[in-house]
Amino acid sequence: MPSPPEGAVLSRSPGDEPGARIAVVIPAYRVKAQLADVIAGVGPECSAIYVVDDACPEGSAAAAEAASDRRVRVLRHEANRGVGAATLTGYRAALADGHDVVVKLDGDGQMDPSLVPELVRPILEGRADYVKGNRFYDLEGLRAMPPLRLVGNALLSFVTKLSTGYWDLFDPTNGMTAIDAGVARMLPFEKLSERYFFESDVLFRLGTLRAVVRDVPMPARYGEEHSGLEPLRVVPEFLGKHLRNTAKRLFYGYFLRNFSVASLELVLGPILIAFGTTVGTIGWSRSYTEGEFASSGTVMVAALPILIGLQLLLAFLGYDIQNVPRDPLRNRLARPRGDAPPEPDRSASG
Asked: Cα-flanking dihedrals φ and ψ of residue 158, to 5°?
């Protein structure tokens, strides 16, 4: 495919940021067969393509270097560090080079690069800080998704809603994303997960920043490639990390930064439920032992706190769902160029 001119930008509509430079980051590990097609599919709206070879045994870097596209820059990890670490290496390079929006595409060919203009448009129009693909919009297209992956994504989506606070999002592990450069600089790169939990961890961190995140429909495409995600191994890890992030989010949002009626509902609800359950269990045990029915007063002492506690938790949940960020951070940020988060000691060469 012919190379675009230097400094190519996305064709924009009124209200878009003028002269926005878009970069694409492609983590590469065991994707040598698909990588050339992915690079060839990146349109002229993107001015740079950063391919990060995560110590790929197939030599994905060689496939990237063989592409006749002058936008391609290959970065290498000396040891395999995971898809998250590879993405962050690409982010650092793109931010240091002064790009305004950074897109992440997986190198396995499951994502259509022609969708990049639609992916970045909400950011350029000032409607979002971070945009991700969602394969669940097209119900017919979901037939192509393996059943186990379909069920797993649905369950993971619900858990991610709870741990991030983005109740209006779905398909959290989707690897096709775009982020505003100014917002990317606010992320604590050194704290982000470097492996498969990366996308979910980014959403959690964006939630703590009150960044606006939007979904963009995309088709589900599956070929002969195999996912490196092993469900039996990662489920306990993912569950533990989601529980950790949920606790952090609730503490940060409802006690450290703010204290409101919702904070009281979150505290009193579980206490009342625990109290009612304890009283009910003791009363039931005593009645069973003595062979007598519990009095109506005993039943009410147990049932009423449980009912009130459930109502308080439902009220909190309703508030939390309505508390999804609506005002994009990017509209309030200065736009410095060429400033990227520091690289950790395990630097990549390129």
From this structure: -65, -45
| Residue 249 covered by a domain | no
**Residue 119 in domain:** yes
Radius of gyration of the chain (CA): 24
Q: Does 284 lie in the same domain as 162? A: no
DSSP character at residue 295: P
Query: Does residue 75 lie within any of the structural domains?
Result: yes
pLDDT of the chain along its 350 residues, tens only? 344 444 444 444 433 555 789 999 999 999 999 999 999 999 999 999 999 999 999 988 888 998 889 999 999 999 999 999 999 999 999 999 999 999 999 999 889 999 999 999 999 999 999 999 998 888 777 777 778 778 888 888 999 999 999 999 999 989 999 999 999 999 999 999 999 999 999 999 999 999 999 999 998 776 655 555 665 677 788 999 999 999 999 999 999 999 999 999 999 999 999 999 999 999 889 888 888 887 888 899 999 999 999 999 999 999 999 999 999 999 988 555 666 676 665 555 55
Cβ neighbours for 190, distance < 8 A, ≥ 6 positions apart = 341, 344
Q: Which domain holds residue 64?
A: 22-231
Q: Are 188 and 311 within one domain?
A: no
- Asked, for residue 253, whether it belongs to a domain, the answer is no
- In this prediction the pTM is 0.87
Are the C-beta atoms of residues 281 and 198 closer than 8 Å to each other?
no
